[in-house]
Each structure stands twice: as C-alpha cells, then as structure tokens.
Amino acid sequence: MAGDDIDGTGPTQANPAGDAPTDLASGVTRRADAPDSLLGGVLAGRYRIDRRLGSGGMGAVYAGTHLLLDRPIAVKIIKPRFGDDPGIAQRFIQEARAASGIGHPHVVEITDFGETEGGTAYFVMERLEGEDLADTVTREGPLAWPRVVHISEQIARALAAAHKHGVVHRDIKPANCFRLTRDDDPDYIKVLDFGLAKVVGSASRAEQDASLTQTGALLGTPGYIAPELYRGLSADHRVDIYALGALMHKLLTGELPPMRLGSDGPSELSLAAVPPGLQAILRRALADEPAARYPTAQALAVDLRHLAAGTGVSLDPGSEPPAASGPLLAVTHDARGISFTIGAPLLGALVLGLGLFAFFSLRAGSLPPADPAGVPVEPARITAEPGPPVIAAAAAPPTSPSEPPTVEPPTPASPDVLGPNTHEPASPGETTAPATTSGADEPEPRAALPKGSPAAVQKAIRRRCAGTFGYTVKLQWKADADGHLIPGSVKVLGTPQHNDAESCALRQLVRSELAWTPGETYAHAFKSG
Ligand SMILES: Nc1ncnc2c1ncn2[C@@H]1O[C@H](COP(=O)(O)OP(=O)(O)OP(=O)(O)O)[C@@H](O)[C@H]1O
C-alpha cells in the first residue's frame, strides 16, 4: 500500500502488511519524522497507524488503532517542514493540551499527546465517523436555516466551554467542525483542531493581546478572520464569535459574508429569506466592532436555542431589529400523524414574502427558486473553501524606493463603489506600484465587478477618512486569480501600530468590491485630503 504524500515529496512505500510493527517513538528517527512512513507502524508503543485521513495547514491526520484497548483512534502529526520550528511544534502540543482540558460533548476528545524521539509532535483523539461541514456544504449546497441553527448552537456551546477554559479556537470554519450521527441526530457536531488556539487564561492581558495580534502574524482562515485582527487591534474570544457568524453565513448561503469593515456602510447581508430573528443574530455575531457582538458564545448559543424553540431572541435593545416572538412553527405529533401550527411571526414573514414575491413576479416575471426554509437555492454559488490557515500575513515586501513606480491609469467607466468620483487620476506623488507582474494568460477579472482603480479607492478614502488624515498613508494589498482582493493581504506599510487614519483607509480598501488585476500586489500611497 503506498502512503499518501503529505509534504509534496511524492508517495512513499509503507510497511507491507504483515511486517513487524516499528516502534516510532523509541527509535528510528527517520521513520518518526517522515509521516508517510508511519503507515503500518506503531506510535508510542500502542497506536498503530492504519491510513491517512487528510492533512491541513500544520499536520496530517491518520486513522489508527489503540492496540491495548483495540479501539479506533485518530492521530494528528505535525508536518515535517514545521518540525524544525520549535515554536510551531510547541504550538502544536499546546493545541492538544488546551483541547484536552475542555471536556465538552461538542469538542473532539483528545486522549494523549507527545513528541517522538525525533521531535515530531503528535496528539491522539477519538476517531469520528462522518464528514466535516466543508464537505457537507460542498456536497449539499446551502443548508435549511433550522439545520444551521441546530448546528451553530452546538458549536457555540463548544466555544463557550473552551472560552471558560481560557482557550480561544481562532480558526473556526466549516472544515474544523465535524458532523456525525449520534443519538439519531445526523447533525451532531464536534469541533476539531484547536491548532491555532492559545491558552489565554494563563497569560497576562498584554500577553493575550500580543498573542492574538502578533505583528506580521495574522492567524485564522481568510473570510473567517475578525475585523479587529485585520486591523492589528486588540483581540479576544470574540474573534471566535465572528468566525461562527461567518460559518453560519457560509452554511446558509454557500458564500462567505461580504467584507464589510466599518459600521457606516449599508448592511450587505444577503439573507433576505432567512427569518428576521436569525438575521439579527447573524448581524450581531458579525458586528464589525467586538463590543457590538455577543459578549459570550454562551449568549449566542442561548439566542440560537430560543430561535429554534420559537421563543424569541434577546438582542441589544435599539441596535437590532426586533426579535421574533412566539413560536415560528410548532410541529405536533399524535396518533393521526403530524400537524403544523404557524406562529404569528412566521405568518407575518410568509405574508410579507408572498407580497414581495407577487410584486417582483409582476415586475421581473421570475424569481429564483427557494427551498422550503426560504433560502434561495439558485443564486447561492458554492465557492471553494479558502486556503489553509494564514500563519503569517501576506508577505510581499514593501516596494523598494529604487523601483520605478508605475501609476495605474484611471479607468474611465469604473462605477464608484466607494465614493462619488472614480475618475480622478492619482496626484503626483501618489503612487501605485504593482509589486508583481501578472502573466499574460491570467484570467480576466469577473465581468460583474467593476475594474479596480487605486484612484477610485483613493477618492473614496479621501471622502470617508478626510477628518482623520494628516499625512500620507501607504497601503499594500493583493488580488487573487479572480481579481478579488485577498482578505488579509491588506497591510499598512511602515508603521506597526495603526492610527485612526490608517484604520479608516484600511477599512475602506477592504470594503471595496472593485476587481483588481489578477495576481497583482499593489502598493499605494494615499495622500492627505
Ligand atoms: N478525530 C477525527 N476523526 C476523523 N477524522 C478526522 C478527525 N480529525 C480530523 N479528521 C479529518 O482529517 C482531515 C484532516 O484534518 P485536519 O485537521 O488536518 O484538516 P484541516 O482542518 O484542514 O487542518 P488545519 O486546520 O491544520 O489546516 C479532515 O478531513 C478532517 O475532517
């Protein structure tokens, strides 16, 4: 049986069946440090490694067997290329130690952890049968909202337990939430992979801040990273609440929530068909400012429970739409079968929905089909999950002063996404220099998005941030292969600490929905207004 390649070096030959198992912890360093050769071997004298389940940012996960207990287990083993970095290996062990202390039904159980003699870190956990939510949403598309509420409540409860233990997950995303069947529930969730978690409880406040917002180290997965981390501000357990909000959005629509840093913009939640109570919960979980979010994951879990039970949600008075009150939909089982009672809020939503449907049908002639929960099916586009966790923020070097800056020509017909006038060319001294050159055969930006123009962004930044500007702010950002801004790639050059002007500029750029030249890195100086 050939072992899978986990580090790009190509498949290697595993022990043939029937070989005497090799004790990986006690001896052959080469074997211990080359995870492909783990297949068929025995780790720490008791864990036989049977097959590889997959690999992520930091490690590979193997299915194995506890030889003494004859029980299935899963083992996560650090990738060899990280093995040389004691910091990362330490973090890996910390992952195990932190997670093993949580002890919650919705957190995967860690039963053992350690290091081989060769210094490869590993931890052992219960082996789960099922799939992670990333696979579910890829396969099934958007999920009905009652399912999303049920799933999310379990994750919120797991997070609440972790936070109580001083553990912040920091990488909540569908791929880290495993779905299995338990007690007749096909949507029973276990949260996996506290690989990026830090034990904040044992650190001082200053250390906590530093650990969550290290300069140059933006931890998490693009799309699920809270705005305060992008801004380099102080961060705490509420980054997990934001990430859970993003996960809920993903499950409901198949899409990540739009980047909408800044509270002055219009709501861009594309969840019109989701019940108002759930929309309100999402808005609060995804609030730009941590203080406007749920203060605890427990509070979020309670609101999700109330929504599921139809007893209303408890949102900040005045700051959010009124919560749904009364049962949305009561389902009664009796000898004659199942009967449904529609509550007033749902009835109101149905009447409103029907009215809107009639209105738009008359106007446009057609509407996309909706599933029974009201989540539109047709417009939701399933996108590939963003890449592995970002360990370090985008690392393109600042444009060197010796490099001849090129001024991107303004795009005459660009609609102004951020400001009223996009046509003004950049002033002399306000430069945009692509730090990389895209290939001639790179794909064109999506037609639906307006073409990017730093001049347009600059105009908007001037308009929105004029009050805070006192000097030139230098920003750098990258575009992906589709010409979209890569979340997490926006950096303020030059200063480690952001001030108001920089934060405002950074926020405006991140909110931009302009298309950029695919694959380019931009460095642009925005002069004071
Ligand atoms: N305890 C487990 N039981 C069964 N399968 C598991 C278990 N833990 C992880 N897996 C599966 O193993 C595969 C690899 O998991 P891993 O955590 O390395 O992926 P990842 O979330 O992409 O990682 P990372 O967060 O490090 O980038 C995934 O398909 C995951 O669902």
TrEMBL record:
<keyword id="KW-0472">Membrane</keyword>
<keyword id="KW-0547">Nucleotide-binding</keyword>
<dbReference type="Pfam" id="PF00069">
    <property type="entry name" value="Pkinase"/>
</dbReference>
<keyword id="KW-0812">Transmembrane</keyword>
<protein>
    <submittedName>
        <fullName>Serine/threonine-protein kinase</fullName>
    </submittedName>
</protein>
<feature type="region of interest" description="Disordered">
    <location>
        <begin position="1"/>
        <end position="31"/>
    </location>
</feature>
<keyword id="KW-1133">Transmembrane helix</keyword>
<dbReference type="InterPro" id="IPR000719">
    <property type="entry name" value="Prot_kinase_dom"/>
</dbReference>
<feature type="binding site">
    <location>
        <position position="76"/>
    </location>
    <ligand>
        <name>ATP</name>
    </ligand>
</feature>
<keyword id="KW-0418">Kinase</keyword>
<keyword id="KW-0808">Transferase</keyword>
<feature type="compositionally biased region" description="Polar residues">
    <location>
        <begin position="429"/>
        <end position="439"/>
    </location>
</feature>
<feature type="region of interest" description="Disordered">
    <location>
        <begin position="390"/>
        <end position="455"/>
    </location>
</feature>
<feature type="domain" description="Protein kinase">
    <location>
        <begin position="47"/>
        <end position="309"/>
    </location>
</feature>
<dbReference type="GO" id="GO:0016301">
    <property type="term" value="F:kinase activity"/>
</dbReference>
<keyword id="KW-0067">ATP-binding</keyword>
<feature type="compositionally biased region" description="Pro residues">
    <location>
        <begin position="398"/>
        <end position="413"/>
    </location>
</feature>
<dbReference type="InterPro" id="IPR011009">
    <property type="entry name" value="Kinase-like_dom_sf"/>
</dbReference>
<dbReference type="InterPro" id="IPR017441">
    <property type="entry name" value="Protein_kinase_ATP_BS"/>
</dbReference>
<feature type="transmembrane region" description="Helical">
    <location>
        <begin position="338"/>
        <end position="360"/>
    </location>
</feature>
